[in-house]
Amino acid sequence: MTTLTAHGTDTLTRDALTVLQPGFTGTSAPDWLLRRLGEGLASVGLFGRNIASPEQLASLTAQLRAERDDVLVAIDEEGGDVTRLEVRSGSSFPGNHALGAVDDVELTRSVAAELGRRLAACGVNLNWAPSADVNSNPANPVIGVRSFGADTGLVSRHTAAYVTGLQSAGVAACTKHFPGHGDTAVDSHHDMPRIDVGLDVLHERELAPFRAAIAAGTRAVMSAHILVPALDPDRPATLSRRILTGLLREELGYEGLIVTDGMEMQAISATYGIERGSVLAIAAGADAICVGGGLADDDTVLRLRDALVAAVHAGDLPEERLADAAARVRSLARWTSEPGAAEHSGGAPDSGIGLVAARRAVTVTRGEHAAPVTEPPYVAAFTPVANIAVGDETPWGVAAELERLLPGTETGSFSGADAGTAALAAAGDRRIVAVVRDAHRHAWMAQALDTLLAARPDTVVVEMGVPQAPPRGALHVATHGAARVCGLAAAEVIVAG
Fold first, then answer.
1. Which of 299, 310, 440, 467 could make a disulfide contact with 478, Cβ separation 3.0–4.6 Å?
2. What are the backbone angles phi and psi of residue 449, rounded to the nearest 5°?
3. DSSP assignment of 164-219, as one string?
């Protein structure tokens, strides 16, 4: 058995590096990352911590390309609630749920094309989006507004439009979370979700948007860390040969890159460990291992590289399967660096399409006490704990936008059993704007609204999550997401009445 050094450049070692999509910390590329790119690493994943501005991001990606000109630079930029490009300000684009609420496929295509144009301008060429999950379980703690909606047909047509728009800018789409994460009540960042439905339901509901994405030419698909007993009773999708090879490759005829969801998520790391999990994923049919949201260092890259090499030597991973995975990564890298990858379909740069879409997505219900807010109000934000995909560093709400329209607006954040009483006390005699996110999922939040509306019937309610609870308040504004542009669209409605 060959002893491999950190500088080994034999085919097996290069292939093992090629299939990794690691992350790193900082806003410039560390030396270790540049060194690994020289040794065969072909992809890098970026997160909010790596981005300070579009100029800095363009400089960072240029640094990576100086080491390897066809490097895949990936990002988790869904727009809406999940943004890395605008992690500190909130997104200029509404997310999937808002686009689904409008249900104009041309609008969805245009939004995705503009988002892709911005990513491409910064040197990013692989986007871990769109989410093609059908939000069939309203209690889902991790998908929610990241889904186009609960209707399979709607999700399918908008997934296809999003893929087409994004890829028209030369940015590869990575449709996720295969075979569908919508019907879960568990977040796979924390535990292993299960989907206990029959094959017929899976084919009619979960798999339909992925078929649409494949037909639209999606260059990548991301697997989910979920157990789907009807497909494989033993292994989660990411580690299942039946699901990745049998279903996705052979039955659905998909030829592009298969990327895993983050391997450090608890559904994998706490059950199989990331080394064994990565070996099993490649053996099952995955081509690229996403790791780096949490574990973002050279040691992680070397551990996974060496685990893959050792698995080949031990006979646990066929060498040709690893070679095939690496070849698919290089094939996608070639596509993104080809002159024809982007159609350069024109359209005015920064056309404001995101705000146009956010305004169209707003649903307004007026109660008997409806009246415009003309004086600086008190904005009471009822804040649930953010899921890991969204994160808690991205601002959300309407306070900042109302402050611009009505200077002197004040705000406070409340949660828990006495949230309503505390908000009333803080507001004094000001008009109250209550901002909620998924009020149907949080009993304390619904109770807080009861308290506010009993005392102050002229309260305005803004729902920035999935609007499942009945509209109430003098004015009820459902934005279908918490992107910055959704907050601005809501603020405009509140001031206009």
1. 467
2. -65, -40
3. HHHHHBT-EEEEEEET--TT-SS-TTTS--B----HHHIIIIISHHHHHHHHTT-S
pLDDT at 392 over 70: no
Query: What distance, in Å, lies between the first and last C-alpha atoms of the chain?
Result: 74
Residue 219 burial (C-beta neighbours within 10 Å; 0-12, 13-18, 19+): buried
Strand-pair category, 363-366 with 475-478: antiparallel
Q: Which amino acid is at 432?
A: I
Q: How does 127-161 read in b/e, with b if 16+ C-beta sit within 10 Å? A: bbbbbbbbbbbeebbbbbbbbbbbebebbbbbbbb
Q: Which residue has the tokens 């309610």?
A: 461
Find the mean pLDDT for residues 128-153. Answer: 85
Of 308, 336, 301, 332, the closest CA to residue 322 belongs to 308
**Residue 285: enclosing H or E segment and its boundaries?**
none
* pTM score, whole prediction: 0.92
Nearest to 309 by CA among 329, 277, 269, 279: 279
Sole residue written with tokens 């291992």: 289
Count the neighbouring beta carbons within 10 Å of the beta carbon of residue 385.
Answer: 8
Q: Determine whether 368 is exposed, middle or buried from the number of CB atoms within 10 Å of its CB (0-12, 13-18, 19+).
A: exposed
Of the candidates 294, 327, 297, 323, the residue with the CA atom closest to the CA atom of residue 308: 323
* pLDDT-wise least confident of 102-116, 129-143, 261-275, 362-376: 129-143
Question: Catalytic residue numbers?
Answer: 189, 261
